[in-house]
Design brief:
It contains 9 helices and 4 strands. By secondary structure, it is of the alpha+beta class.
Length: 430
């Protein structure tokens, strides 16, 4: 009997090793043999996300807008043509003897080509370029914020799969333990120590573990399909990250902060545009034309002409609203500053909560191994008592389940700790 028990223990250990080895190779989940890390999954998910195409679109849009703004320094050319008929024309109200004073025709024609070259625009074009760059930066940072949300979704799926893998592996070990108990009770029945009801109690627990395994496999399949859709390829074996690779966050480096800063810079550019709005404009112009009459109104014939000069314009109407416009920009800046402060306040609360969660899980993990060892001792003792007839099989199953639950809790604590550490990493972007 002793030799049989030793052989059973050796066989059980070998089976567990074989199961673990097969599980690591990925025989449980059909996929590629290459292990995926959480960092590679996040990189692949970002590259596969349709929104990433907007980075290129934002850059192209900025280039076009800057090019258009720069063209404001080019000569502005306009062509005008006009034909008119009027009811009366200017006439000399007196006549001189022997002098024929010509009279203009009532139909008149004019075609002009105007060329204007800006010398100084008060800083309007420069301000427009700054606004274009600032707006593009806002769009870029907003896209970074939208893309950053992918990492948290990948983390949840990645660690969910790791948890299901660990639970599946533990469930296999539990089934091996129940099979050993089933064989043990069967031998007891042959020896008259147990009855069929005792064996049925073990079978019930075996069926429950199979149900649990089916549920784990279904959940893992769902999580795997979602992660596969996000990264754009099949998901095989996932590499469990090491806790030693994570460092304590020193500062908050979230993309939302860059978004707030870029919005404030955009408002600064808008303030410069307000200033440019009430500055004078200086330009040179040239007008060439052909018309009837020309510049000499006393000649009723088609004549070419030209006019050139310097033009200074100053629109004082912008001064009426510039104070209110500046106050509106200041209000918008203060609003963004308040949003930034609120965001940092909430993030700091999250960091505090996550640090407390990490400490709580670590405190729990200190006792996991000891609890498992004690539960194993109780289970082994219960098996001996069943063999001696001093304990029922129902009570033995209760101790087997308690031992399995202790192992499951250790697995959950390990994955939960990793997940919380990466959640803190995601919260601070470190």
């Amino acid at each position: 009997m002793l030799i049989t028990n030793v052989n059973n223990k050796i066989n059980n250990r070998m089976k567990k090793l074989i199961i673990s080895f097969m599980f690591v190779l990925g025989s449980y989940a059909p996929a590629t043999y290459a292990q995926l890390t959480i960092d590679s999954c996040q990189t692949k998910a970002r590259a596969n996300y349709p929104l990433i195409k907007r980075y290129e679109l934002i850059e192209k849009s900025k280039e076009y807008n800057l090019s258009n703004a720069g063209k404001g320094y080019l000569p502005q050319i306009s062509l005008t043509a006009r034909a008119s008929y009027q009811s009366d024309v200017t006439k000399v109200p007196f006549s001189f003897p022997g002098i024929d004073v010509p009279t203009l025709s009532k139909d008149q024609y004019l075609a002009t080509l105007d060329v204007t070259q800006t010398i100084w625009d008060g800083g309007s074009i420069s301000s427009q370029k700054k606004i274009t760059q600032a707006q593009s930066e806002v769009d870029y940072q907003q896209l970074n914020v939208d893309m950053y949300a992918i990492e948290e979704r990948v983390n949840q799926l990645f660690f969910g799969i790791l948890l299901f893998d660990a639970q599946w592996q533990q469930n296999e070990i539990m089934q091996e333990d129940l099979k050993r108990n089933h064989d043990m009770i069967s031998s007891y029945i042959e020896n008259g120590i147990a009855n069929q009801a005792d064996l049925d109690a073990v079978k019930v627990e075996q069926l429950k573990t199979k149900q649990t395994q089916a549920q784990i496999e279904a959940n893992r399949k769902a999580y795997t399909e979602m992660l596969s859709a996000m990264i754009g390829e099949s998901v095989g074996t996932l590499q469990k990250p090491g806790m030693e690779t994570l460092v304590a966050p020193r500062a908050i480096n979230r993309p939302e902060l860059q978004l707030f800063d870029s919005q404030i810079q955009l408002f600064d550019s808008q303030r410069d545009m307000i200033t440019a709005g009430y500055m004078p404009r200086l330009s040179v112009f040239m007008q060439g034309g052909y018309g009837k009459p020309g510049l000499n109104m006393l000649e009723d014939d088609f004549k070419p002409f030209y006019i050139g000069g310097v033009r200074l314009t100053w629109n004082f109407g912008a001064l009426y609203t510039q104070r209110n416009d500046r106050q509106k920009v200041l209000i918008n800046q203060n609003n963004v500053t308040t949003q930034k402060e609120t965001f940092l306040y909430n993030i700091n609360l999250e960091v505090t909560q996550e640090n407390n969660d990490i400490k709580r899980i670590k405190d729990l993990m200190v006792y996991d191994d000891e609890i498992i060892q004690l539960r194993e001792n109780v289970r082994k003792s219960a098996e001996i008592k069943v063999a001696n007839g001093t304990l029922t099989v129902i009570e033995l199953m209760r101790e087997v389940n308690a031992s399995n639950l202790a192992k499951q809790e250790k697995i959950s604590h390990e994955i939960e700790l990793l997940m919380t550490l990466y959640k803190l990493k995601n919260t601070t972007n470190n």
